[in-house]
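Supplementary material to the annual report.
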Amino acid sequence: MTTHKMTLNMGPQHPSTHGVLRLVLELDGETITACEPHIGYLHRGIEKLAESKTYHQFLPITDRLDYIAAPSNNLAYCLAVEKLAGLEVPKRASYIRMIIAELTRIASHLVWLGTHALDIGAYTVFLYTFRERELILDIFESYCGARLTTTCFRIGGVPYTIDDGLKKQIADFIKIFPKKIEEYEGLLTKNPIWLNRTQNIGIIPKDTAISYGLTGPTLRGSGIDRDIRKVNPYSCYDEVEFVVPKGRGIGDVYDRYLVRLDEMRESVKIITQALERLPDGEILADCPKVIPPKKERVKTEIAALIHHFHIMTEGFELPKGEAFLSIEAPKGELGFYIVSDGGNKPARLRIRTPSFANLSCISEIGKGVMIADMVAIIGSLDIVLGEIDR
Amino acid sequence: MKEYLWVAFFLLVGIAFCLGGFIFNWFIRSNKPSESKLSTYECGEKPVGSAWIQYDVKYYLYGLLFLIFDVEIVFIIPWATIFKGSATVTALFVEMVIFIVILLVGLIYAGKKGALQWR
Amino acid sequence: MELLYNTERLVEIIGDFLQSCKGYGIPEWVLTLGGGVVVAVIIAGFIAVNTLILVLAERKVSAFIQDRLGPMRVGPWGCLQTVADALKLLQKEDITPKKADRLIFFLSPIIVFAPAVMAYVAISWSPKIRVADINLGLLYIFATGSLGTLGIILAGWSSANKWSLLGGMRSAAQIISYEVALILSVIGVIMLSGSLNLENLISCQKDCWYIVYQPLGFLLFLVSAIAETNRAPFDIVEAEQELVGGFHTEYSAMKFAMFFLGEYASVFIASALCATLFLGGWQPVPGLPAVVPPIIWFLAKCYLIVFIIMWIRWTYPRIRVDQLMGFSWKFLIPLGFLNIGLTGFIMAIRG
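Predicted assembly:
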């Protein structure tokens, strides 16, 4: 009897393609013989949009890249602009950025864990993780008023400080969170069905991981402990102690799961240290050319008002040149490349997003697996389509 | 036999229940079919090819094993019903052990030949 | 009040009433048919109401497990939520895709639902309450259970949708794995009682429930029954994260509702069977005085099993289809044979 292969669209409207990813699968029964990702359903032209916005105006748009880890995008963009402008950020601001960025990492990993477990059919973990993520979003709300698209940093520093109330809120969360990780692990880590569904599935060998340019937990799951926070520290990450987890070294779905769980624990450590050492001082750089005057002065002094108006409408000019800066976002290496022609808007802005590179390996590792495994693999890569399509 | 009349009657009840639901639904539903509403769902894209193709289900050998074992169970059930209180319990037991061992050897053989795997 | 409490007496009164009707010159066949219709309405009503209760229970149990409230808005404590859902489904537009095989697409919800209704014939609710005393009750319920799967396969095929087709074929994979394990797991019980009749099975457990003699058999039965009724972690047939909606992707309105009713009806049948075979059916715990009516005992045991099935659903991830088949053939079926051997061995030694 002759059998035929079946071509099947998985996505864009599919519960476990994490947004609008479309995979064209060639199926031999349940086994996938070829898999081709199609992207672009969420393309908004963010890179082109940057060319018509002043440096300040573009900041809120970066929230829409990886929308479940908005502060990380803000941080990468601010750092890149600061590098081009040669701005020195006050230490207190750097620490606040570090705390918020690590909270973001936990929030992002919580969403990943919940949806990944949901894809494999463990419904309950999903609601547990979202319960804790809610606490982090509450912290963001206390900090800047927004929960999802936060825009919580500014070029040259941070707009708000962490006061004692917020400090306590963060400390309370950090205190209960390790126990919650145990709770998730209790449901999954040694569960035989979970092990069957994740171990030795979607193996990414070391050299494949490097050749596809994978970064972040996806890379570290393959046993390479490369972390931008260690390799090229930014925002005072060199002043705190933490370990870069790298899993068992097999590179399967389970390894990536272990790495992300350990990363959440490390983030807790970083936040604890940063809260203890949070230095006093200014939270915005002393650079009137870039940073608008304080609101109180704007209301009382005519010069400050004009100054404020000028920065808000015209923005500021950056010297001719280019800068690339990347950070360790929750999903991997997030880099901003900015070219300035001396004007108040970027001449060209390019974003190196981790999800895009991480997704690229799917045609290779998705060959020969079953549909159910494909779902597990997509989940383990932790992609966000807002970031891939830009 | 009266009991089995009930079975037949309940088959009709089940069908009538469904039809009743469908008919009730037919009276009060809205009905505005459109081209895209009536199209086959394939994640929002146009379906590629037909769904009615012959494809490899991979568990063909399991199907054969299932047939064999389901038939064997037909032999086990009558044996099980007379087992209790039988005068020759030991002999019955030895007989069934031989029967089951043969079955298990068959299962192990099938496993060794790789029939218990998706290929 | 006394009558509500003493359900046995209620059945007798209805019987007496029908008998007395004969005196008024009403022909025999009218009475028989009338009685049948009354029974049918009661059972159909029970299936519908029970499904509403089970869906609500499912949502409340999952909410309890997941540290949230569940439905709270419709009615006090959200208890009318499923009624509202059912009403919504009743008035939904019924869509048959253009490419589907219309006849089979129409028939398959019936093929799923009707056998589930048929299974209720053999259930023994209390000493006097049952539809019919079927001699081969156990085999009969297994037979109706497998018929329903046929409907799922047909639904998957007739939708002309690749996701549905995959779901339907997975259903076939599931039935050929768990049918054998399911029947093997109850052979021990049949050996102990020497009967396939549910009445006899229950009366044999007067002194000691079979779960004591057959703990392995009970576990095997529970696992296989969960698989047979397509519940998580074996819900690969409709696995929404993998196959979108599985076999019912293209179904809507009442046709979809029938699959739902059929699923919960068979979940209840599976737990009723479990309670009958291993937990002594409608009998109270041995040694306890029979204060509570037997039907309450029976329902309590059923809902306990249903709760366990829900508990498992909301705790475990989903197993993959090839692992599912491997699990059955390499683990459950050998264990089922082991259980038969052990039971036989002990019975042979003790005479």
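The radius of gyration of chain C is 21 Å.
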